[in-house]
From TrEMBL:
A single GO molecular function term of this UniProt record: DNA binding
Species in which this protein is naturally found: Croceibacterium salegens
The organism's place on the tree of life at top rank: Bacteria
Species lineage: Bacteria, Pseudomonadati, Pseudomonadota, Alphaproteobacteria, Sphingomonadales
InterPro entries attached to this UniProt entry: CheY-like_superfamily, OmpR/PhoB-type_DNA-bd, Sig_transdc_resp-reg_C-effctor, Sig_transdc_resp-reg_receiver, WH-like_DNA-bd_sf
4-aspartylphosphate PTM positions: D214
Record flagged with keyword Ribonucleoprotein: no
DNA-binding interval(s): 15-110
Listed name of the protein: Response regulator
Length: 289
C-alpha cells in the first residue's frame, strides 16, 4: 500500500464529493467525472490524483507521488510524468490546473470544494454489489447492477488456492463455458463482464493477471481492439488475448502492434497463450495445495 498522506480531506471517505471546475471525484467510489460524464483512470494516475487532491494548492514532491503510485517499486521519473500526462488528459479543460513545479514536483492549483454525496437507494445497492463482488474470494453466478442500471452477471470459477485471475470480456459468456471450466480446473479464476466500459472500470480496482476479450460486441465490431488500446493508453500492461472465431494475419498484426499477447481462434490456441501467464503449460494439471 502507498503512504498515508493526509491533507484537508485525509479523513473518512464515505459520502464525499470533491469538485473543481467541471471535475467531480467521488472519494468513496474513487470515481472521476468530468462535465457530468464518467472518466476512467488507471491505477497509477488515480493514486497520484488522490494525493494531489488531498494537498490541493500545495506543492507535492515527485518522491511522494512516486511512493503513492509505485510503492516499493523502482521506477523512472518518466513513469510519473506519463501518469501525470494521462491524468491531465482525463481532466479535460481543467487539466491545466495540474501544474508542474519544475525539478521538484506537481501542484493541483485549484480551489477544491467538498460536498456530501447524495446516493439514491438503487445506486447504493449497485455500488455495494460491486464491492461485494470484488471482496469475496468465491463468487458463482453473482448478479450485480451495472453502471447504467442494467443487470450484469459476473461469474467466477475461483476456488481456494487460485493461482491467478482472468477478466473475460464477452457479451455472450455462454459461449465460453468449456474454456472457463478448463481454466477453473487449473485454479485460474475467471470473472466475466459484457462491456468494454465495465472492463475499463474494473481493471484498476482488482488484481487480474490477464484479460481475454472477444472482438465484436453489439454495434462495436472493433470492441476488443479498442479495449486493448484503452488499456495500453492508460499504462495497463497486463497480458491481453483476443479470442475470436474469425482471424487473419492482418488482425494478428494489429493486435501485436497495439501491445496484445496474441489472437486465439480455438481452445488449444487460447490455452497455449494464456496458461504460461500463470506459470502453467497446456495440459498440465492444476497445482495441489
Amino acid at each position: 500500500m502507498g503512504p498515508t498522506i493526509r491533507g484537508r480531506w485525509g479523513g473518512p471517505m464515505s459520502g464525499v464529493i470533491l469538485r473543481f471546475g467541471q471535475v467531480e471525484f467521488d472519494r468513496a467510489r474513487e470515481r472521476l467525472s468530468v462535465a457530468g460524464k464518467p472518466v476512467p483512470l488507471d491505477r497509477f494516475s488515480l493514486a497520484i490524483f488522490r494525493v494531489l487532491l488531498a494537498h490541493a494548492g500545495e506543492e507535492v514532491s515527485k518522491d511522494a507521488l512516486l511512493e503513492a503510485g509505485w510503492s516499493g517499486r523502482v521506477v523512472q521519473e518518466n513513469s510519473l510524468a506519463k501518469a501525470v500526462g494521462r491524468l491531465r488528459s482525463a481532466l479535460g479543460d481543467d487539466g491545466i490546473a495540474l501544474e508542474t513545479v519544475h525539478g521538484r514536483g506537481y501542484r493541483l492549483a485549484a480551489e477544491v470544494v467538498e460536498t456530501k454525496a447524495v446516493v439514491p437507494p438503487a445506486s447504493r445497492r449497485r455500488y455495494l454489489a460491486v464491492l461485494a463482488m470484488l471482496a469475496a474470494p468465491v463468487i458463482a453466478g453473482a448478479t450485480i447492477m451495472g453502471l447504467r442500471g442494467t443487470e450484469r452477471h459476473v461469474v467466477s470459477s475461483e476456488s481456494p488456492g487460485a493461482v491467478g485471475r482472468v477478466l473475460w470480456v464477452d457479451d455472450h459468456p455462454e459461449n465460453n463455458e468449456t474454456e472457463k471450466r478448463f481454466l477453473g480446473e487449473r485454479k485460474i479464476a475467471v470473472y466475466q463482464v459484457g462491456t468494454t466500459a465495465d472492463a475499463v472500470t474494473l481493471l484498476p480496482m482488482y488484481e487480474y493477471g490477464a484479460v481475454i476479450s472477444d472482438m465484436g460486441r453489439g454495434q462495436q465490431p472493433l470492441a476488443g481492439l479498442q479495449l486493448l488500446q484503452a488499456m495500453r493508453e492508460r499504462g495497463d500492461e497486463r497480458p491481453f488475448v483476443l479470442y475470436t472465431v474469425h482471424t487473419s494475419p492482418e488482425l494478428r498484426r494489429q493486435i501485436a502492434e497495439a501491445g496484445g499477447q496474441g489472437v486465439a481462434e480455438n481452445e488449444d490456441e487460447l490455452y497455449r497463450t494464456i496458461l504460461p501467464v500463470f506459470g502453467l503449460r497446456p495440459g498440465k494439471s492444476a497445482p495441489r495445495d
